[in-house]
Amino acid sequence: xFYGRLNPxxxxxxxxFDEQYHCFSGAFSDKPQLEGGDKILLPSSAFEQLAxxxxxxxxxxxxxxxxGRTHVxxxxxxxxxxxxxxxxxxxxxxxxxxxxxxxxKNVSLPKATFVKFKPQSVDFLDISNPRAVLExxxxxxxxxxxxxxxxxxxxxxxxxxxxxxxKPSEAAxxxxxxxxxxxxxxxxxxEPEHITRPPKKDDTSGGVAKxxxxxxxxxxxxxxxxxxxxxxxxxxxKAFGGxxxxxxx
Length: 249
Prior knowledge:
The structure is a single chain. By secondary structure, the chain is of the alpha+beta class. It has helices spanning 44-53, 88-93, 130-137, 219-230; strands spanning 2-6, 13-25, 39-41, 60-64, 69-76, 83-86, 101-107, 114-119, 143-145, 149-154, 157-167, 171-173, 180-183. It starts with a strand and ends in a 19-residue tail after the last helix.
């Protein structure tokens, strides 16, 4: 199916690719890497139509279901005719089931300059360097759309992050672009409480005062120290005590 739109460079109307397919998850393909990005598989007939329309690269598409929409790239044109294979997490964003009907339309998106994500679990904080992991994983993505929850596979675990904000528009391309990435606090995250202990006060009723020379020594030891300090007994050891004698007689 094709629709005409005015070419801003002149030359009348330019046709737009807009087709309907039955969507299926990556479990129906031999492409396990499909779940690690936002790219879909389209049939070979789609490539023929896109080539005839001279669609600009990178090829980006708006995918719509009866309950939602998102934006994706294309990995290959190897899907069976009449079918579209996509990551399961994209089907979850579209609220689709296996075999649901979706429309796929080619679009042109601006380059993203800023994206903000909100992790959907505090487990995301267990990653030693989440920013580096996310930036590396985003290399397998083509675009981002506000409201989507993208899937981030890492160390045999899947982390989900909601796209909270995108600039300059709610959907943008992230291929070969200098984009700033920010994080919001994960869902369920609670700021740790900072307990401030009050300063110790001098206790003259039974505690040890700050000017006590014996510190926190046990009472029996304190008593012995007082005995030694206050005792002027001649038998007590005195350093360098006693009478001296001349060596020359």
